[in-house]
Amino acid sequence: MPAPPTGTVTLLFTDIEGSTRLLHELGPESYAEELAAHRRVLRSAFDRYGGVEMDTQGDAFFVAFARAPSAVEAAQSITAGLSSGPIRVRMGLHTGTPLVTEEGYVGNDVHQAARIAAAGHGGQIVLSPMTAELVREKFSLAALGTHRLKDFAEPVSLFQLGDEEFPPLKTIANTNLPTPVSSFLGREHELFEASRTIATTRLLTVTGPGGAGKTRFALELARRVREERFADYRDGVFFVSLAALRDPALVLDTVAQSIGANVGLREDVADKQMLLLLDNFEQIVAAAGELSEVLEACSNLSLLVTSREVLHIRGEVEYKLPALAEADGVLLFWERAQQEPSADIRELCRRLDGLPLAIELAAARARMLSPAS
To answer: Which one of 14, 192, 199, 308 is most buried, by most CB atoms within 10 A?
Structure first.
């Protein structure tokens, strides 16, 4: 075996997703053939891009590269080489300076690389921020947000090679809550009320007319309760957009896909402590009955729903989102338009019925038209 690279090195961990399931599906002989083919693809990529194989356990590999771009190219080659077969490999890369001993590498860098690989899904290549910084000019990366890895106290920002969509990473604080492009303003009293309510119910439906800001409010509520009561939702807080759906029969499958369920929503959630934010439910409200069955079957599941109407299922608590208070409406207009509060702005907010969307649209036109017009 070649000597392992020293100094700053990039560590690559690989693992087959669902190996036990594949064994049962393919049978021992066919699985053994696919496993051997998988190993040939991986070792060919390692040789081509200068990787030094440090360890292998079962169907997992641990490989070191002197250069981060070489490690990423090897990972890309592996994904392409396995694309036509049944085996899908998750990979994690991390760049650091582990201690080199006679037995191999030792240190937190090794453990971090392994945790990053374990957080991904088959076909997904996940990078630490250190590796991402070294390769971002050459490769297309997608930010996956900040995550906590097992046995590591500090959260870490993770990145994915390419823009293919995968379920949320399997990290300690699972979440796919989108990061809004603008700050959340006002509604502190409403957030306090809704937060207190969601602590005592497993189904909270935020209702209001179009433009009332239900989605933005629910996202902020979910973010806060996740931070304040992490232990209540230790298996994840997930956002599921239903805006594009019109067929109620597709709701459960859409939710399952969004949270990475492979065996069905009920079976995957089971007794997990999880909060799902289901956005824009009004056009597929006929699916509420099936949703109720899932809620009854999964005793630790909680739902936060936004809709123009209630779902009318057992255990539901409605929170009617009121219009923005006048002061909050003026603050929102000022922040978006960068115009000092005035009597004209206050009157405009009143005429717009305190609807956040209408106020934001008016603020966007403030440079062309004055509030008085």
So the answer is: 14
For the chain, the domains span: 9-161, 188-320, 326-364
Residue 369 has pLDDT above 60, yes or no: no
Q: How many residues appear in the chain? A: 373
**Fold annotation for 188-320:** Rossmann fold (3.40.50)
Q: Does domain 9-161 have CATH number 3.30.360.10?
A: no
Tell me what pLDDT residue 206 has.
97
- Measure the CA angle with vertex 285, ends 279 and 288; round to 5°: 95
Q: How far apart are CA 186 and CA 207, in angstroms?
A: 18
Supply the pTM of this predicted model. 0.57
Supply the pLDDT for residue 371: 52
pLDDT tens digit string along 174-212? Answer: 678 887 767 777 789 999 999 999 999 999 999 998 888
Q: In what side-by-side order are the strands of the sheet with 301-307?
A: 237-241, 274-279, 301-307, 203-207, 317-320
Nearest to 177 by CA among 234, 224, 238, 235: 238
Half-sphere exposure of 150 (CA within 13 A, CB side): 11
Three-class SS string for 194-206?
HHHHHCCCCEEEE
Looking at the DSSP assignment, which residues form a beta bridge with residue 318? 205
Helices (H), 275-355: 288-297, 326-337, 343-351
List the helix and strand counts (H, then E) for the chain. Answer: 13, 14
Residue-wise pLDDT for 119-152, tens only, equals 999 999 999 999 999 999 999 999 887 777 888 8
| pLDDT value at 90 more than 70 | yes
Contact 230, 173 (CB under 8 A): yes
Amino acid at 338: Q
Please compute Rg for the chain using Cα positions: 25
pLDDT attached to residue 366: 67
Structure tokens at 91: 């990979």
Say if residues 210 and 186 touch (Cβ distance below 8 Å). Answer: no
In this predicted structure, what is the pLDDT of residue 370?
Answer: 54
**Distance from C-alpha of 132 to C-alpha of 74, rounded to nearest angstrom:** 15
Distance CA 245, CA 24 (A): 35
